[in-house]
Amino acid sequence: MFDLDKAQRLSLTVQVESRLKSALILGMLKPGARLVTKEIAQQLGTSITPVREALLRLVASGALDVTPAQAFLVPAITVCRYQEITSLRKTLEGIAVEKAAREINKAGLIRLNELKDSFLSARQVSVEAVLKANRDFYFQLFQYAAMPTLMELIEQLWVRIGPSFNYLYPRFDEVSKMSHNYDALIMALTESDVEKSIAAIHKSISDDSDVLLRQYIG
User: Where in the chain is the domain with CATH 1.10.10.10?
Assistant: First the structure.
């Protein structure tokens, strides 16, 4: 017979994992930080078991590190690793945007413009709001490619690179001025221009990378 308790625990584990992924992507967890299972369970209002299982799943996917003493750590991100992930993002997100440029419809373009406006509003709020709005825009765009496996791979890269965004939190003035090249990207998508769409997403990734690399080098 199907084990309902196990199914419920798995569902809760997936929810906790999703919350932790979001925190990683938004740079809310500092590189090198130790994640304490009991504290996370208290914050999320759940038991320790699904939290521990979620943390182990993130370790298995390379999003977290674990010590021999079973301490969970947010990985430190070297410049070389950051540049490697950035290069992979350009390749995979370029594929997603190429497909999206062929598939997106009028409703999709309207939705992207709404998310662009949300991003502009977020620049008056906080670094976290900016990063969340940026994620919402791009993940919505990638959805239009209708390639779920590719979407999973892109999310894995965002999860791995996300902790580096923590360096932006003390720099709200600089973050609030970031443009992210939305207008050029939306225009290229409107024209169904694949080459311009890919160039726009590559420029956006490069611009973001330049900002982050200044934090590593500076």
Answer: 4-73
